[in-house]
Design brief:
5-stranded antiparallel sheet, 5 strands, 24% strand, globular
C-alpha cells in the first residue's frame, strides 16, 4: 500500500496544488481517466472546506491530505484540526462570555451553510465518502475503484 502525504498551511491558494497532486497520484494508482475530474473537484471541495474551517476558527495547524493506493481502490483523506460538535470548548479556545460553550455568531451560521453545501457537493461526486469528526479534528475520507492490475498498461 503506497501513501503520499501532503500538509499545507490553511491558505486558499494551496488548494489548487492539493488538487493537482491528487489527480496525479490517482492517475498513477489506476483510477479511470473519466473519473479524474471528479477526484479533482472532490479534493478541491474537501480542502477548501478544511481551509475555511481553520481560518474561521483561527487554527494555524496545517491541513493534511493522505492519498493511499490500495489493492483495488484509491482513497484520499482530508483532515482538519477543528474540534467537532460535543468537543470540550476549552480545548478549542472558543466560548461565549459565560464560558458555557462556543459563541455563535451570524458568520458561524453562514459558515455552516457553506460547510453543508461543500459536503453535499462531495457526496454527489464520490460514491464512497465518510465524514468523521472528533476532539482532534475532522476527516473526510473518499475512495474510488482502480482498474484491475491485469488491465493496467
Amino acid at each position: 500500500m503506497a501513501t503520499v502525504e501532503l500538509r499545507f498551511s490553511a491558505q486558499p491558494e494551496h488548494v489548487r496544488t492539493a488538487r493537482l497532486v491528487a489527480a496525479a497520484v490517482a492517475r498513477r494508482a489506476g483510477v479511470d481517466e473519466a473519473v479524474l475530474d471528479e477526484v479533482r473537484l472532490a479534493v478541491g471541495e474537501a480542502c477548501s472546506r478544511a481551509v475555511g474551517l481553520h481560518r474561521s476558527h483561527g487554527i494555524t495547524a496545517p491541513v493534511s491530505v493522505a492519498l493511499t493506493e490500495e489493492e483495488k481502490a484509491f482513497s484520499i483523506e482530508v483532515g482538519d484540526s477543528v474540534p467537532g460538535p460535543g468537543a470540550d470548548p476549552a480545548e478549542s479556545g472558543a466560548s461565549d462570555a459565560s464560558g458555557a460553550g462556543p459563541a455563535r455568531t451570524d458568520s458561524d451560521a453562514d459558515g455552516e451553510g457553506e460547510d453543508e453545501m461543500g459536503l453535499a457537493v462531495i457526496s454527489g461526486l464520490v460514491d464512497d465518502v465518510e465524514v468523521r469528526s472528533g476532539a482532534g479534528g475532522g476527516v473526510i475520507r473518499m475512495s474510488w475503484p482502480t482498474a484491475d492490475a491485469a488491465v493496467r498498461p
